[in-house]
């Protein structure tokens, strides 16, 4: 399991969350929402970046 950092800042009325290792950002009305949205975005990113294997015939 990989561990990634989360940086959360307040910008106006919203909280912006950033995963600097993957350069992925999200936002939310609360810190918890911003972090949850970031976790979802990271999971989706990693799911699409997972290498696909194919069977080679010899």
Q: Mean of the pLDDT scores?
A: 90
Report on the biggest sheet.
3 strands, antiparallel
- Please trace the helix and strand order, writing H or E for each element: EEEH
State the share of residues found in helices, binned by percent.
Answer: 25-40%
Uncertain segments of ≥5 residues (pLDDT<50)? none
Q: What is the structural class?
A: alpha+beta
- Radius of gyration equals 15 Å
What's the number of helices? 1
In brief, what are we looking at here?
The chain is an alpha+beta fold. The chain has 1 helix and 3 strands; from the N terminus they run βββα. The protein has one domain.
Describe this protein's structure.
Helices cover 33% and strands 28% of the residues. With 58 residues, it is α+β, with helices and mostly antiparallel strands. The chain has one domain (7-49). β1 (7-11) and β2 (14-19) form a beta hairpin. The protein is elongated and about 60 Å long.
Q: What are the defining features of this structure?
A:
58 residues, 3-stranded antiparallel sheet, 1 helix, elongated
Element layout with pairings:
Elements: E1 7-11, E2 14-19, E3 24-28, H1 31-49
Antiparallel strand pairs: 1-2, 2-3
């Amino acid at each position: 399991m990989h561990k990634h950092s989360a940086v959360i800042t307040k910008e106006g009325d919203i909280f912006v969350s950033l995963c600097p290792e993957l350069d992925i950002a999200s936002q939310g009305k609360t810190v918890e929402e911003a972090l949850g949205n970031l976790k979802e975005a990271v999971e989706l990113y990693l799911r699409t970046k997972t290498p696909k294997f194919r069977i080679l015939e010899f």
